[in-house]
Amino acid sequence: MSSQYYLGLPIEEKSRYLAKLKCDNVTLPDPFNKNLRQTFFSTDLSDLPEVSQVNIFEYLVEKECVYTREAFKAYRSLDAYNYFHSGKVKMILTHTDGNTCVVYGEIEAGQTLSKSYSAWIIAKKSGEIQSGHCTCMAGNGEVCSHVGTILVAVEQCVQDGLQSGPSVTSKPSVWSRVTKKADPQPVAQCDFLKPGKKIKLQAPLCFPLLNPDGSPKKLFKALKVSYSSYISNKSTSLM
């Protein structure tokens, strides 16, 4: 059973679409068909292929395009890391048939938050990526940023060892995690310097009082003057 998306493709692209869904003499279910997704796909992350960053680079950049017989060289699709860490992955489903795994995902559009695209990739359990497709304008090219985002999501799940746990999308704040712990503290004790240019402070800075209107512009001006004065005094004391 084919999806409405497939039925709307030109004849040449229909042939390519079906060819991608046929692996090892087995025809895989069309991920864009909602009924087939409900029947054959699951949120079980243990079915995810062992995709690595090397596999992603080999597919997006070095793999040969079927139409041009040249390498994809889709360097822009490597921006998928930004898509992933921005929390644009809304759903991940998997289907496994033997040594082949299909991963379906819904990715939020880069510029329009109210719009999302459906995409899928097919890979061997070892991580070798076979093909991909997306409903966006560049989807027939097989290496758009949305396809790349699914690959990055799979690779991150593998790296985090989430294949043995529940679905990532069923848990809060797993896609974008904060690795540094930041404890709240008064503004006067905050360190605004870059790591490579830190100066050990002997005492908290003393910021002048704001004007009655309390405008942000005057606040930052006051901070700048106070800090410049502190650094100047600090440099003088070291001479």
Question: How are the secondary structure elements laid out?
Answer:
Blueprint: H1 4-7, H2 11-20, E1 22-23, E2 26-27, H3 34-40, H4 53-62, H5 80-85, E3 89-97, E4 100-108, E5 116-124, E6 129-134, H6 145-159, H7 216-238
Antiparallel strand pairs: 1-2, 3-4, 4-5, 5-6
Describe this structure in words.
The protein has 2 domains: 4-170, no CATH class; 187-238, no CATH class. The chain has 239 residues and is of the alpha+beta class. The longest helix has 23 residues, at 216-238. Mean pLDDT is 75; it is low at 198-212. The chain contains 7 helices and 6 strands, in the order H-H-E-E-H-H-H-E-E-E-E-H-H. A 4-stranded antiparallel β-sheet has the order 3-4-5-6, covered by helices on one side. A two-stranded antiparallel ribbon has the order 1-2.
Features:
about 240 residues; alpha+beta; 2 domains; four-stranded antiparallel beta sheet; two-stranded antiparallel sheet; 7 helices; 6 strands; about 30% helix; elongated
